[in-house]
């Protein structure tokens, strides 16, 4: 633009000056690496980075991951929220057997699942623990939820997941399906080999019915599976 | 903030899903700013789809590629955790995200400069750093805002500022009346300005 002038307000004059300082190269926005969204989603899922824009939001309880000293141990940890009116127990039993009807399940571990950030304000206290059963193969093959009466949301489902973390910090997220009713047994697909991971977490999330199959990031409870 | 015992927190994790879903499947017609304020589960994905290019492009112009990627990730994570502080009345989500990105980029650039030239006058370094980063940030926001202008306004502004045509030349080339050319430019600048507005602290 040359001699032409517009009667511009100060703010518009600033934009005018900015545009004059730009070249066509400045109009090209570059696409981020394709993997970046997955990394962001994974970091949200695992709450890996603890910093935020400003100050920390304050101390909060860590997930109650404890040594398991007896099989089927449950209810070992409770978060006493001030307004807590309801205490719900979700027992997740993780088994290693090819079929959920197989009587040969053996408990090999448990996990206490901690209430995740962002859901405490609902005024409900939840304690979840999980136990692992193994047939000797060393790989988790099913998860049984004894009582999953978690608070529901309109138009959303509850979904059960396993999250495997390998020694490089890489995550593998495996859905075990939607939770219907108060529990049930969920077979773990063969492609999820729990023995390949350093850490395996049980996770329950809210999933909007939007056709998106990836984890929504809205985890209600999550905890590490520990050997019994 | 919850932590997970046994998870290595210093490395950058990568996710792979048993069922792969691409960001192209984001529902359309969703108001990203409203979703963000409400903390909807898909709001972060929507925000990234809408502003991932903007934030990353800004970071990539100020930092090396690996750092740009890391800072972009930090920006979206920080924004998600601090989403209660975002107020749509104080500016567009893009401008707010860029405000977060600006601070992160300046911290990184300062750190790099201090390491590369410890003898430099730090005050001078910081002043030039901030000015450069701010200018880059503004340019990226303008580029992003231009994409959202009505087609005719965008065309007229492109001719005026990037092809250096006079208003009469634009009117002649586009067959748009001279008065309309001027008002399109004026309104376009006002729209771009609103795009850059960020009154958050």
Mean pLDDT of chain B: 79
Give helix and strand order of chain B, one letter per element, not per position: EHHHHHHHH
Principal-axis shape of chain A equals elongated
Helical proportion of chain A, percent range: 10-25%
Count, helices of chain B: 8
Percentage beta strand of chain B: under 5%
Largest sheet of chain A: 10 strands, mixed
Taking pLDDT < 50 over at least 5 consecutive residues as the criterion, the unreliable ranges of chain B are 1-30
- Shape summary of chain B: globular
Low-confidence region ranges of chain A: 47-91, 95-104, 118-131
Largest Cβ-defined interface: A-B, 87 and 76 residues
Distance between the termini of chain B: 24 Å
Number of strands of chain A: 10
What does the radius of gyration of chain B come to? 20 Å
Provide the succession of SSEs of chain A. Answer: HHEEEEEEEEEE
Helix count, DSSP H or I runs of 4 or more residues of chain A: 2
Average predicted confidence as pLDDT of chain A = 63
Number of strands of chain B: 1
User: Kindly, what is the distance between the CA atoms of the first and last residues of chain A, rounded to a whole number of angstroms?
Assistant: 75 Å
Task: Summarize the SSE layout with pairings.
The complex is a heterodimer of chains A (228) and B (201).
Chain A (H helix, E strand, L loop, with lengths): L9 H12 L14 H11 L39 E10 L11 E9 L8 E10 L8 E4 L10 E10 L5 E9 L4 E4 L11 E10 L10 E6 L1 E2 L1
Parallel strand pairs in A: 1-3
Antiparallel strand pairs in A: 1-4, 2-3, 2-9, 2-10, 4-7, 5-6, 5-8, 8-9
Chain B lengths: L14 E3 L14 H7 L4 H20 L2 H17 L11 H24 L5 H27 L2 H12 L4 H8 L3 H19 L5
Helix pairs in contact in B: 1-2, 2-3, 2-4, 2-5, 3-4, 4-5, 5-8, 6-8, 7-8
């Amino acid at each position: 633009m040359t001699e032409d002038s517009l009667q511009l307000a100060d703010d518009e004059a600033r934009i005018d000056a900015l545009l004059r300082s730009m070249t066509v190269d400045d109009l090209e926005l570059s696409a981020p690496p394709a993997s970046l969204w997955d990394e962001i989603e994974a970091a949200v899922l695992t709450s890996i980075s603890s910093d935020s824009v400003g100050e920390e939001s304050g101390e909060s309880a860590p997930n109650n991951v404890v040594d398991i000293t007896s099989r089927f141990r449950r209810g070992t940890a409770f978060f006493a929220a001030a307004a807590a009116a309801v205490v719900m127990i979700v027992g997740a039993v993780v088994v290693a057997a090819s079929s959920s009807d197989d009587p040969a399940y053996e408990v090999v571990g448990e996990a206490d699942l901690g209430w995740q950030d962002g859901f405490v304000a609902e005024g409900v206290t939840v304690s979840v623990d999980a136990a692992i059963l193994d047939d000797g193969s060393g790989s988790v093959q099913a998860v049984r939820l004894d009582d999953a009466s978690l608070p529901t949301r309109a138009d959303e489902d509850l979904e059960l997941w396993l999250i495997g973390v390998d020694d490089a910090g890489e995550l593998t997220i495996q859905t075990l399906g939607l939770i219907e009713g108060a529990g049930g047994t969920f077979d773990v697909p063969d492609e999820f080999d729990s023995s390949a991971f350093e850490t395996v977490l049980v996770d329950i999330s809210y999933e909007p019915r939007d056709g998106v199959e990836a984890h929504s990031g809205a985890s209600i409870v999550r905890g590490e599976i520990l050997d019994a | 903030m919850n932590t997970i015992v046994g998870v290595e927190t210093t490395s950058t994790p990568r996710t792979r899903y048993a069922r792969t879903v691409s960001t192209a499947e984001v529902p359309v017609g969703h108001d990203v700013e409203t979703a963000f304020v409400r903390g909807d589960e898909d709001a972060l994905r929507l925000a990234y789809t809408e502003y991932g290019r903007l934030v990353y492009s800004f970071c990539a112009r100020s930092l090396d590629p690996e750092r740009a990627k890391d800072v972009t990730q930090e920006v979206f994570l920080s924004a998600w955790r601090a989403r209660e502080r975002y107020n749509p009345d104080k500016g567009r989500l893009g401008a707010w995200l860029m405000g977060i990105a600006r601070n992160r980029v300046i911290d990184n650039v300062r750190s790099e400069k201090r390491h590369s030239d410890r003898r430099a006058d730090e005050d001078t370094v910081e002043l030039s750093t901030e000015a450069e980063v701010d200018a880059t940030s503004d340019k990226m926001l303008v580029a992003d805002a231009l994409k959202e202008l009505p087609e005719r306004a965008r065309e007229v502004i492109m001719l005026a500022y990037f092809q250096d045509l006079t208003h009469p030349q634009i009117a002649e080339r586009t067959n748009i009346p001279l008065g309309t050319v001027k008002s399109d430019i004026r309104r376009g600048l006002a729209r771009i300005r609103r795009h850059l507005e960020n009154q958050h602290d």
